[in-house]
Specification:
Layout lengths: L2 E7 L7 H11 L4 E7 L5 H10 L4 E4 L13 E2 L1 H6 L4 E5 L2 E5 L2 H13 L8 E5 L3 H11 L7 E5 L3 H10 L8 E2 L1 H6 L6 E4 L24 E4 L8 H8 L3 E3 L2 H16 L5 H17 L1
Helix pairs in contact: 1-10, 4-5, 4-9, 9-10
The protein binds NADP nicotinamide-adenine-dinucleotide phosphate.
Amino acid sequence: MQKLYGVIGYPVGHSMSPIMHNDAFERLNLEGYYHAFEIVPDKFQTAIEGLKALDIAGFNVTIPYKVKIMEHLDEIDPLAKEIGAVNTVVNEKGRFIGYNTDGEGYVTSLLSTLNKRDLTECTVLIIGAGGAARAIYFTLATYKQPPKQIDLCNRTPAKAEELIADNPAEIGSASLSIEEAEASLAKYDIIINTTSVGMHPSTDASPLRLDYLKKGALVSDIIYNPLETKLLKEAKSRGAMIHNGIGMFVMQGALAFEKWTNQRPYIEAMEEIILKKLEHKKEE
Ligand code: NAP
């Protein structure tokens, strides 16, 4: 019998996860179907009970439910607990187990762009202190070969300070104002934008000035619409290596798929299908 998978969120109609996962099931000849379930907030509990009753095999969780889902799970992976958010749920014999594949998805994608460059030699600056920053910061900090130092800068510095205080690893970290980060940019080998600044339709905005960008630095932006944000365009024009948010999106999905099926999907095919979908969206 075909197994049921999906993504829950509100709204969720725009999600690109269904085409990516359904294509992956087909390519691997697996009997699976992935659906986008839009759940209105006051029906959340009933909807989760419904998914359990239907014996859904696994599902992703997106905005605004990544934190709220946690109180409805039977078990939570330790890293997801530290991050404080769950984006993937696996149904193990009727028990819902929560994971967070956002951070690992991002780090896997980053490492493949860094190629053979040694992360332990790198000083990292994260811009932002929201949910995505938390997943990326904690995953990088607890990585088996972590960077030398991870600093944070955020529009609201208190949130960055809170993240640093909550960080489970013993890694050097400082909270900087945006202006301080801009002035000391020459120190950083990797700069990661985790804010929504520069995302469609506000494509003229950039979260940070890059005047003092270090030669050979890598600038990464987790936004994937557009594929090249203003920040990335500027970094490229200054000769930096760039990395966009597609890899994170695809890898978080691929890692979830692997947890559900114990099979690795075709990553290139997943990426291709998302790029095509984004291209199509641009034309609409
Ligand atoms: P979030 O929890 O709401 O955090 C938003 C962050 O952006 C905060 O640090 C916030 O700063 C900052 N910010 C928002 N508007 C700003 C502005 N006008 N000026 C300066 N800073 C601003 O959101 P999130 O879940 O972390 O998501 C952030 C972005 O990552 C979104 O664009 C999302 O689409 C993207 N994302 C991509 C992937 C992927 O797979 N590639 C996955 C998850 C998220 P304050 O703290 O000062 O409010």
